[in-house]
Give the backbone structure.
Amino acid sequence: MAAYRFSEHHPMNPDRLGLTARLIEELDVLGQGAGSLREPFVADDDQLRSVHGADYVAAVRQASGPDAEAAPGFGLGTEDDPIFEGMHEASARLFGGSLVAAEAVLEDKGVPAVNFAGGMHHASRDKASGFCIYNDAAGAIARLLDSGVRRVLYVDLDAHHGDGTQSIFWDDPRVLTISLHESGRSLFPGTGFPSETGGSEAPMGAVNVALPAGTRDAGWLRAFHAVVPPIARAFAPEVIVSQHGCDGHERDELTNLRLSVDGQRQNALDMAELATELTQGRWIATGGGGYDIVHTVPRVWTHLLAVASGRPVPLKTPVPPRFREYVLQRYGVEAPLKMGDDAELWWRSWEVGYDPGDPVDRAIMATRKEVFPAFGLDPWFD
């Protein structure tokens, strides 16, 4: 999966995957009898065409070979998505990993599945965007639907709006996409406002919470709990797919949010709780953005996998010495000492009341006013 490498200097550095796998191994997250590994495969063209256009898949293939040609009309060969040899196969393997996750959930209806190398949520049906070539989360959703699943909830927790996944299912009433993100007024891709609520065939198929730059854990978690659980319960999904990009961390240089590892771990716990309550554990979790590859990404996605396995890693757990030694030798920097940031995670529940002077509360209320009535919910009290 580390073959998904645009260049030596591109922000989407696949070392973040290797470091995550190393930390998972050092903490023996999978050795506790609570999980198993399945090998990803390279998705074939028919599988890719479940969510992507045939001409687009052909363009990615053309841009991946020895006679590669950029295709700017398809978003290939841009600054964000430069072409590289083997791009099709590398991208299709990430896609195949999420198909494996979907199959695992379909086979064993109470077992979550995690593909932390996935979460390529900016790729739309016919265009690459934002470091994303093929949209693996959308592919997993399509596989679930093709198998007879009637309602899939997609929750996107990346700092950036999940625009590609939203666009692919814009007119599909079987899929509800919810995205919490930094407002498009200050961050790529410039979309994801509360008024974006779905197409004519699915007029309330999209829910967007656009939070102000500088939002911290307390505001982020307040927004999550004020919007996601009540909407999820009203939608009553059969399977949940979530995207856990960790680029909202305060150390990440590509966004303006100020979240902690502790807060992002809490989001994983929240999603696990929702999956247990609403889908009997049928939950697929993917990775996504995250560009602080040493301090943030390995810890957040190790927590995600541990939570999904039913054995959360305590925040006070020391980062294993062998991992820290490897990071120092390989990157010349000190790795964190603990699995958490010692953050204060208290947040005001929505029941405490709405503060019109708080920009986070205004963002929450804009979303609730836009979509809650359509789900039979009161934007002020539910």
The radius of gyration is 19 Å. The domain at 15-52+86-375 is CATH 3.40.800.20 (Arginase; Chain A). The mean pLDDT is 97.
